[in-house]
Amino acid sequence: MDNTNQENYINLDEAAEYLGIKQTTLRSWIKDPKNEIPAHKVGRMWKFKRSEIDDWINSGKSAIVE
């Protein structure tokens, strides 16, 4: 099996750092369904894919985050 095309998930801390925001801000965005931030709950932890975050930003949906 070729693992070169598989993308690993990043945790909430890494996603906040990637976006240049605080963890508390990211948590509030996740809780508000109108933000549509691509987050996946795995057990008690939130996980993110960088490619999905990039797509979310490029779509313009991140501009409506309040």
Structure description:
With 66 residues, the chain is of the alpha+beta class. It is 41% helix and 14% strand. A 3-stranded antiparallel beta sheet has the order 1-3-2. The chain contains 3 helices and 3 strands. The N and C termini lie far apart (42 Å). The protein has one domain (10-64): Multidrug-efflux Transporter Regulator, Chain: A, Domain 2 (Orthogonal Bundle). It is globular, with a radius of gyration of 12 Å.
Blueprint of the fold:
Elements (H helix, E strand, L loop, with lengths): L9 E2 H8 L3 H9 L8 E3 L2 E4 L1 H10 L7
Index terms:
three-stranded antiparallel sheet, 3 strands, globular
Query: Helix-strand pattern, N to C?
Result: EHHEEH
Low-confidence stretches: none
What is the CATH architecture descriptor? Orthogonal Bundle
CATH C-level: Mainly Alpha
Structural class: alpha+beta
- Overall mean confidence score, pLDDT: 87
Task: Kindly estimate the percentage of residues that lie in beta strands according to DSSP.
Answer: 5-15%
Q: How many domains, in number, for the residues?
A: 1
Task: Determine the number of helices (DSSP H or I, runs of at least 4 residues).
Answer: 3
Strand order of the largest sheet: 1-3-2
> What is the terminal-to-terminal distance?
42 Å
Percent range for helical residues?
Answer: 40-55%
Tell me the number of strands.
3
Sum up the overall morphology in one term.
globular
Named CATH topology: Multidrug-efflux Transporter Regulator, Chain: A, Domain 2
- Major sheet summary line: 3 strands, antiparallel
Tell me the radius of gyration.
Answer: 12 Å
